[in-house]
Design goal:
By secondary structure, this protein is mainly α. Helix content is 88%, strand content 0%. The longest helix is centred in the last third of the chain and has 65 residues.
Length: 139
């Protein structure tokens, strides 16, 4: 009984250590998600500027539509920014999925730790006191 109790306590301690690591990863992932959201928001202003310049350039009054190096560079700039934003959004989706997995893992670990704590309480407090009260020599 004492060996089983010791094993249960050791398992509970390992679970608590693992939970601490998972919580650190959750915190790190939340910071990463905040960084990605900020990066996406920071790309909005340059995107609007580039799109506005391109639109203004293509809709100039009394001027023929010309395709010069400046026009091509604006088109390329809008495409680059769009590609970067899409890549950041993909990274954000992956990070959020990983965060959900970590939170599920955290909840599972917390539940297992609660079960182990309850087991230790039952074995240590309730059963051990009962076993000590019963004298084997009486039988």
């Amino acid at each position: 009984m004492k060996n089983r109790l010791k094993e249960t306590k050791a398992a509970k301690n390992k679970l608590e250590e693992h939970l601490a690591k998972v919580m650190e990863e959750v915190s790190s992932q939340e910071k990463n998600i905040d960084y990605l959201k900020k990066a996406i928001n920071d790309k909005e202003a340059p995107m609007k500027v580039a799109e506005t310049r391109l639109e203004t350039r293509t809709q100039r009054p009394n001027v023929e539509l010309c395709r010069d190096p400046a026009q091509y560079r604006l088109i390329r700039e809008v495409h680059e920014i769009t590609t970067n934003v899409e890549r950041l959004q993909e990274m954000l989706a992956k990070a959020e999925a990983e965060l959900r997995g970590l939170v599920r893992s955290q909840l599972s670990l917390e539940e297992e730790i609660e079960v182990k704590a309850n087991t230790v309480y039952i074995d240590e407090v309730l059963c051990m006191q009962m076993r000590e009260a019963i004298s084997i020599n009486n039988f």
